Structure prediction request, 727 residues.
Amino acid sequence: MRELKGKYFCIVDIELTEEKEIIQFAAKKIDFNFRVINSINYYIKPIQSDITSFVTDLTGITNEILRDKPSFRKVSKVLYEYIKDGILVCHGLQSDYLILKKHFQDIGIEYSPSMSLDTVELARLFLPTQSSYRLSDLAASLNIYSSDNYHNAVIDVKATAKLLETIALKIPIIQKENYNKICKLLKKVDSNIVLFLEYYKNNNLTSDIICDKRDYIVYDGVKFNKLKLVIKEKKNNGRILFSSIDVNDYISKFNVINYTVLKKKSDYVSLDIFSLLSKKNDLNLYKLLVKLYIWILETTNGDLSELNLLYLERLYLEECREALELSSNSYYFDEKKQLAKGASNVIVNYDNLEYILNNDEFSNYTLIFENKKILGNELDSNNIKEYRYKSVITELNIAISQNPSDKKLKVIKENLDSLIKFLHEMYISESLVLYNESLEYILQDIAVLQDSLKNIKRYLPITRDFCKQLTNALLNKKNSYTFDILYQESTLVLLVIDDKKVKTLINTINRHDYQYLDMPNKVSLIYIKDEKELMSSKFSGSVLYIFESTKYKNLYFSKRERKTYVKYINFSLKDSFAQLYTDVIKNNKKQYYDAFKMTTAEINGGDVTYFIIAFMMLIEKTIDNATELLNKRINRLSEEKQKLEQFFKANEITDPLLREIYILLLQARLFSLGVGISKAEIMNACGKSRGTIFTRFKQIPKDYLIKVKYGRTESYMLKTSILGSKE
Prediction:
């Protein structure tokens, strides 16, 4: 193409000190056929700081290696002349380019490549099923380069070149129909990627690529990979295995053979997926669509979980889940269902229970459940109705604004609000006595509210339904509803288990041939750090669960179970001065009690001087302990910030404000004594508006955060486990 005539790729990688000084610069020039033109490698002595042990462990570069090496200033012109005319290619372009640009600017050189490519972005778009986009992981997964010395700039340049070539080789086999749509989308995302795409679509690199021999389904001008599934006639009665954990973990745990996996309909891509997605002008949506156009040409199952998507991309898919469930063009689901009919073992999750029970094609299968407890929990969780008080508030506020003279509306809102707050406080305190004593009055209050609502039906349908369901839940009316939990997030949510539905399902199960897996009866201790560990441990029979926190207190266990089987032990460092002081006293009981004896002794006549001295000595010990703890946490903060920088790079987090929020959340985890930091405090710390902070906060996945509630205040901390550290 004319735009690329005379050009070449210049692949660059740099290694840095913790203060972002360049200590190694490696680059390689390659032509568009990926033939090496030449390469360079420079070790560079930093000016402002020495090499830390962390950098040495990461890169293998030591202060001794760099002792006689030139500064960046001395080699800058050579480096600039080498890279200035090439197409800049980096794995993690944005961060590397900004650092390069600043280094050149500091010595008076303006560096701005005419074209640049990021192999992280290219890999995310054209290799959408990769589990990780770290360079070493991609190289291993794609079998394109093998080394134990990643984070050496020379090695990373070689691996990046191979990755770029792998992506380029893939482009010619993209089907024309999908290719045209991809090009149109990428013009809105990155014009450089479009040039790269168009060049390699029109210029095959090798004669080995003859044609794509796969079969395709054409739907609405788009091609989908046609599945080649061998459907066998089942020779004996099959089994439906219900799994509450990851399918692969389940297969491994129970050594399942001759199986097929059947997920719910919305887990599979529909042929009309592109019409079901929103039509917003959003770069994240455009990138998602590109990935889908690539993936549907390759998928062997049509399972959307194969895709490794960014957080906002996953949100877009979640938005159309219901439409996927209703779609009649579910080719992949239909094919997998046919395959399941010939399998001796069909592995499904509990979301598929109703579908299995209501499908005559599976009526002769034996249903296999892990155990009664898990079955009960899954039946409840899949038959929960949510009644959000937020929607009630919204409805009431609208009605009040439209009818300002109607005082009854304001009274209804005030009365309902006070009632909900009371229920919330009651359930937080788990005061069954208070509940039993107050139930009659609570129901009377709701009845009064319902009478008031009868006269204004047209205004408040959501509010009326909320009050009705609340009454049913509290009364357990006709044994069809159970009041499960009332909690406060941004607002209150009433979760109601439809017991009538659950009982119907249980009766249907009892009419089938079913069994439970044999579980060991041996009592054992299970130490649990997170939800994943919890789920994987629930098959161990009679277990004494020992937690690091009370986070899962109400999540998986009833009150009876919590008293019998669950213990909570906090293994973390002591988080408060009071706790530290308590521990000091425990470890110095004799000194503490002697102080009391001396003070109350007749000879002292009640003089508290001795006790005060002893007390001050204990406080001194407490301060020493607290100081030691603080120093440990300061040291850990330094370590975790280094890991956080690597996390930013691996996850392409370049927004300075979003980075700052992550750092504040990390500091809250290490220094807030378990209190966390609120969004308002983040807003004040960053000096940004509420809307700006909230927008950035949404970009942080919920499973990255620890949420702490104090009354109505929500505070947050960063999970250090996402950085590969212990919590």
